Amino acid sequence: MLQLNAGLCVRSLSVESECNKCELVCPTTAIAIGESNLPAINFSECVTCGACTAICPSEALTLDEFDATNFFLILLKMMIPFYLVVKMFLVFLLLV
Ligand code: SF4
Ligand code: SF4
Questions:
Q1: What is the four-CA torsion angle of 79, 85, 89, 95, rounded to 10 degrees?
Q2: Ligand 1 in reach of 47 Cβ (< 6 A)
């Protein structure tokens, strides 16, 4: 599971910091800078890919373990709308 050590985040060390590398790199928008001016993690969207932990300059984000089940469930959830669009497009092509 992804963990945030807020005390290490440069945003908590400097109010001038505009770091949002973790937010930008996240492929599922599971992490976003919240109203507290710190990253907020939406665990239901996090696929534990580790991209944010790799890009964070202060090691404020850490990942305990890769959760393969969660990763594939969320990936599946993300792909379903794509398949529906492709299917509707194919149906459309068959009708015209
Ligand atoms: S581990 Fe991956 S999916 Fe989860 S918040 Fe970080 S970048 Fe996003
Ligand atoms: S990348 Fe690291 S330092 Fe930057 S906002 Fe995210 S957690 Fe904070």
A1: 120
A2: yes
pTM of the model: 0.73
Top-confidence residue, 76 or 25: 25
CATH architecture of 2-95: 2-Layer Sandwich (3.30)
CB of 2 closer than 6 angstroms to any ligand 1 atom: yes
Residue spans per domain, the chain: 2-95
Q: For residue 6, which of 29, 28, 34, 27 has the smallest C-alpha distance?
A: 34
Is 46 a pocket residue for ligand 1 (Cβ < 6 Å)? yes
Q: Nearest residue CA, atom 8 of ligand 2?
A: 9
* Residue 77 binned pLDDT confidence (cut-offs 50, 70, 90): confident
Q: Which helix (H) or strand (E) holds 48?
A: none
- Of all protein residues, the one whose alpha carbon is nearest to atom 2 of ligand 1 is 49
